[in-house]
Write a structure and sequence with these properties.
This protein has about 400 residues and is mostly beta strands. It is about 5% helix and about 40% strand. The chain is built from four helices and 25 strands.
Length: about 400
């Protein structure tokens, strides 16, 4: 039996979730949610990605490096190619019929970019309009003000790909901590929920209460400009042993995929570690459907078990000298009773186990299974609530 959904039987909404994320940086290694690389049967990394990275499509799981799958496109009249192939490359490097290949896995992780004073910074310049857009939230968003000129000042940029936070970083959840030999020496949070990263600890520490930078929640960037000295020892943060620096928020996350080497010297900074915590925001569209099993309906089944096989009565029909006979199809009485004799009154009973969802062309597009079969008698009606993520 097929029923059509009524106008009040389908609801559209979305589920909002805020998953937690943690990044830990120590000795130039990044660890994501306390996970370490897991070795497999054919490779040293099951996901074929290093510590701190996620595989975007989770391809090439536990595959030998000589047997990796990869995407490919044949150059044809449709002029299709990968986005990484420029128009000039497409025209000059490939002939019609050539195979254009890509590579898996594609991966993502947090990245730190440090800019010295006066250094060219195209990624910062690209954020000029975005920063000024958020200026009503805090004066510290201003690209150029009495708080500093972001086109010239020293700056620590933390880039968080959207695969981690979804639609945006939840306000009030950013927490950055800096440790020295395991002891917390500085901590910032966006306690005002306006993007200002304020140093909140340890209590009474140098810079406590000061603004160390700003966060772009929707874009996934943290801009750290706090230059006050957190610990008065010189560290080779710039990968230049002749120019060691004192510890500040400008060097938070040192070794976070920033391309800098960890020097093997006494001032290498190996005693420092960093953590970055935040919550993301993800939205999942959901369709809720109410499927009704009306009273007095859905009480017959074509399942062979619905028939009492022990019945041997025959119905014989005559026409002239010919006859036609068929076994009497008796529905099995499954009505329960306290006693086996006499037999309880017959009730047509079925058990609902699955609900099929069809499109307008009567194509089956989804099947819902109930946890336990639902007993359906003629005097009962049910409404099943189905949810489908879309």
């Amino acid at each position: 039996m097929i029923y059509k959904f009524g106008e009040n039987d389908i609801f559209y909404n979305r589920i909002e979730t805020h998953p937690k994320f943690n990044f830990y940086v120590f000795k130039g290694q990044v660890y994501y949610n306390n996970k370490v690389v897991e070795s497999g049967s054919f490779t040293s990394s099951v996901g074929c990605v290093p510590n701190g990275y996620v595989s975007l499509y989770e391809e090439n799981i536990d595959r030998d490096s000589s047997q990796l799958i990869y995407p490919f496109i044949t150059k044809a009249g449709g002029l299709s190619a990968f986005k990484t192939v420029s128009t000039s490359q497409f025209n000059s490097d490939f002939s019609y019929g050539d195979i254009i290949t890509g590579s898996y896995p594609l991966s993502a992780s947090v990245i730190r970019e440090f800019y010295t004073q006066g250094e060219s910074r195209p990624h910062i310049d690209a954020l000029r309009n975005t920063l000024n857009y958020y200026l009503p939230l805090s004066r510290h968003y201003s690209f150029s003000s009495s708080f500093g000129d972001k086109s010239d000042q020293k700056m620590n940029l933390i880039n968080i790909p959207s695969i981690f936070f979804g639609s945006g970083i939840e306000k009030g959840t950013i927490n950055l901590k800096m440790f020295y030999t395991g002891t917390l020496i500085a901590e910032v949070q966006d306690i005002k929920r306006n993007g200002e990263l304020i140093q909140v600890g340890p209590s009474g520490s140098v810079g406590s209460g000061s603004i160390a930078g700003v966060a772009l929640y929707n874009e996934g960037f943290l801009l750290l400009t706090g230059s006050w000295t957190i610990k008065t020892n010189y560290v080779d943060y710039l990968d230049d042993i002749t120019d060691p620096q004192q510890t500040s928020w400008l060097y938070f996350g040192w070794g976070m995929n920033d391309g800098l080497n960890m020097p093997s010297t006494s001032n290498s900074g190996s005693a420092y570690s960093y953590t970055m915590d935040f919550k993301g925001t993800t939205y999942t569209p959901v369709i809720t459907m109410l499927a009704h099993a009306p009273r007095g309906e859905l009480n017959h089944s074509n399942n062979p078990t619905f028939i009492d096989k022990t019945s041997t009565n025959l119905n014989v029909y005559y026409s002239s000298s010919y006859s036609f006979s068929e076994a009497e199809m008796v529905i099995k009485n499954t009505t329960s009773a306290s006693y086996s004799d006499p037999e309880p009154p017959f009730k047509k009973t079925t058990y609902i186990t699955k609900i099929g969802i069809y499109d307008e062309n009567k194509n089956l597009i989804a099947i819902a299974n109930v946890a336990e079969p639902v007993k359906k008698t003629e005097d009962r009606d049910f409404t099943f609530k189905l949810k489908l993520d879309i």
